[in-house]
């Protein structure tokens, strides 16, 4: 594969202790040597060593920077190509100046994610592993990070490969049956088809069962706090943020840039709308009416419905319950430090089998119980302590669903007594769909689109 030498700044843009200019490609080491002055040329350094020296401007001979330079020789590197990492003093000017010199020597400025893209194109990692790298960078909680790390290490890839292998074996059997019909092995072929098909389907189901949690871990759980004015919604938000340290991030969405606030509640990342958004939804019943509340509730995956212990239930409260039917709702009866005027039996009845938690946010009571209720809602059973190979990526989930459907079709066709070569078409299709998860036979534009989501220099 024809690959030029690329370079980029791999550390965040801003003032820092150290800034790294990364170079990858055939000419990386030679190119860096044109700028480097140290004990010996980088070409003579052992691979995976870091070397002290200076960067000089080849035109003027001026010393530009004092540096440490890592030399990483192909093929055992991040990209499988020759790589150099120049560790500069971390000022914007310094790192930019060194990058400029590297580009002057003939390197091309890397596109976002291009180093990782090369790791993929050069076969060190597959597509789902590369996607794991993005998730790793974006992970908001330890748990999300564990899931991403597992994917980077190829745990999901291995499971997918195992399933593809099983499908391949069935296809091979069918082929024998088609090529040598005189063996009259049809009966046996059908049996194998049935067995392997059901096995793969079951495994896909198991993977898909992790998808809901996986997706929440990766993207956060969109959460809205609703309730009549003055019940304590803002106090609830504040207390969740205080206890759990809000992580403020700006993730560029595809259509708009939104500031999202993440609150990590016992491993469940809650994606709260930005403060403006939350303020807007606060006294939604009174101010904006039922239609608006319905929209807000429908847009969220978790509804925190706040009531006032010190007031009788109102029609508006009942309406909020009605609107949130069919959603994940935790009811919070707040202000338990004040006299109980609410009809708790009625509240429990309205909540049905969904959790009700009593709090006094003023006295900081009941928040633990609320957090526990949130955790239980999303980590019921014991998925969390499993091997952490969750499916978390919408692209993967869609492909797995399609593959499962295709296998269903195959099993159905078989039961209907269709000829085996018809069944084979479906099995092959399922094999291809699973292949797309790990980047087998995916289009160039999809690859470009995936890697463009990376940071510059990754
Ligand atoms: N300075 C620096 N820090 C970094 C990275 C980097 O590229 N540079 N990484 C990148 O973002 C991450 C580490 N990831 C890496 C993954 C694979 C290889 C690598 O060289 N793999 C070789 C095996 C090398 C060996 O066993 O000695 C290989 O798989 O062949 C390097 C880094 C995090 N920290
Ligand atoms: N006694 C008591 N007061 C509380 C409690 N929680 C909140 N409050 C008070 O209730 C008032 C309203 O609290 P907020 O958190 O602003 O309520 P809100 O639902 O956001 O109100 P709006 O934004 O006006 O809809 C404030 O004066 C709080 O201090 C509680 O548990 N007990
Ligand atoms: Mg408020």
From TrEMBL:
Subcellular location field: Cytoplasm
Any one cellular-component term (Gene Ontology): cytosol
Record flagged with keyword Ribosomal protein: no
InterPro entries per UniProt: G_TrmE (IPR031168), GTP-bd (IPR006073), GTP-bd_TrmE_N (IPR018948), GTPase_MnmE (IPR004520), MnmE_dom2 (IPR027368), MnmE_helical (IPR025867), P-loop_NTPase (IPR027417), Small_GTP-bd (IPR005225)
PROSITE patterns in the record: G_TRME
Regions annotated as coiled coil: none
Keywords assigned: Cytoplasm, GTP-binding, Hydrolase, Magnesium, Metal-binding, Nucleotide-binding, Potassium, tRNA processing
Amino-acid positions noted as binding K(+) in the UniProt annotation, renumbered to this chain: 230, 249, 251, 254
Binding annotation for (6S)-5-formyl-5,6,7,8-tetrahydrofolate: 22, 85, 124, 458
GO terms for biological process, alphabetical: tRNA methylation; tRNA wobble uridine modification
Binding residues annotated for GTP, in chain numbering: 230-235, 249-255, 274-277
Family annotation (SUPFAM superfamilies): P-loop containing nucleoside triphosphate hydrolases, TrmE connector domain
Residues annotated as binding Mg(2+): 234, 255
Cofactor(s) needed: K(+)
Start and end residues of each TrmE-type G domain: 220-379
Listed GO MF terms: GTP binding; GTPase activity; identical protein binding; metal ion binding
Similarity comment: family membership: Belongs to the TRAFAC class TrmE-Era-EngA-EngB-Septin-like GTPase superfamily. TrmE GTPase family.
Function of the protein: Exhibits a very high intrinsic GTPase hydrolysis rate. Involved in the addition of a carboxymethylaminomethyl (cmnm) group at the wobble position (U34) of certain tRNAs, forming tRNA-cmnm(5)s(2)U34.
Subunit organization: Homodimer. Heterotetramer of two MnmE and two MnmG subunits.
Annotated PANTHER family: TRNA MODIFICATION GTPASE GTPBP3, TRNA MODIFICATION GTPASE GTPBP3, MITOCHONDRIAL
Name recorded for this polypeptide: tRNA modification GTPase MnmE
Species for this entry: Salipaludibacillus aurantiacus
Taxonomic classification: Bacteria, Bacillati, Bacillota, Bacilli, Bacillales
């Amino acid at each position: 594969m024809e690959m030029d030498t690329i370079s980029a700044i791999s550390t965040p843009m801003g003032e820092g202790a150290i800034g790294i200019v990364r170079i990858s490609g055939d000419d990386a080491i030679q190119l860096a040597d044109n700028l480097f002055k140290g004990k010996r040329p980088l070409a003579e350094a052992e691979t995976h060593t870091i070397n002290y020296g200076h960067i000089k401007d080849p035109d003027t001979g001026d010393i530009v920077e004092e540096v440490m330079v890592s030399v990483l020789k192909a093929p055992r590197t991040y990209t499988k190509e020759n790589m150099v990492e120049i560790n500069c003093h971390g000022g914007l000017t310094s790192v930019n100046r060194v990058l400029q010199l590297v580009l002057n020597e003939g390197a091309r400025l890397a596109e976002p994610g291009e180093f990782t893209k090369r790791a993929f194109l050069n076969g060190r990692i597959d597509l789902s592993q590369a996607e794991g790298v993005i998730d790793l960078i974006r992970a908001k909680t330890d748990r999300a990070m564990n899931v991403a790390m597992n994917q980077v290490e190829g745990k999901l890839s291995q499971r997918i490969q195992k399933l593809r292998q099983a499908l391949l074996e069935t296809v091979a059997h069918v082929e024998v049956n088609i090529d040598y019909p005189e063996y009259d092995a049809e009966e046996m072929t059908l049996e194998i088809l049935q067995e392997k098909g059901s096995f793969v389907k079951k495994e896909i189901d198991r993977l898909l069962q992790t998808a809901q949690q996986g997706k929440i871990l990766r993207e956060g759980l969109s959460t809205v706090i609703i309730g009549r004015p003055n019940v304590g919604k803002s106090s609830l938000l504040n207390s969740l943020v205080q206890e759990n340290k809000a992580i403020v991030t700006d993730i560029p969405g595809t259509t708009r840039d939104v500031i999202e606030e993440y609150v990590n509640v016992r491993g469940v990342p809650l994606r709260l709308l930005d403060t403006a958004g939350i303020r807007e939804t606060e006294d939604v019943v009174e101010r904006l009416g039922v239609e608006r509340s319905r929209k807000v509730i429908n847009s969220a995956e978790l509804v925190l419905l706040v009531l006032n212990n010190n007031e009788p239930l109102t029609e508006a409260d009942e309406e909020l319950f009605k609107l949130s039917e069919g959603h994940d709702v935790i009811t919070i009866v707040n202000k338990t430090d004040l006299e109980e005027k609410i009809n708790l039996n009625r509240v429990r009845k309205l909540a049905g089998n969904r959790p009700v938690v009593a709090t006094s946010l003023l006295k900081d009571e009941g928040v633990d119980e609320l957090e526990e209720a949130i955790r239980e809602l999303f980590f019921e059973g014991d998925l969390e302590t499993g091997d952490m190979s969750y499916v978390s990526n919408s692209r993967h989930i869609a492909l797995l669903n399609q593959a499962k459907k295709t296998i269903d079709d195959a099993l159905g066709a078989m039961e209907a007594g269709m000829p085996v070569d018809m069944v084979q078409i479906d099995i092959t299709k399922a094999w291809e769909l699973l292949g797309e998860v790990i980047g087998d036979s995916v289009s160039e534009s999809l690859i470009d689109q995936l890697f463009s989501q990376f940071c510059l220099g990754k």
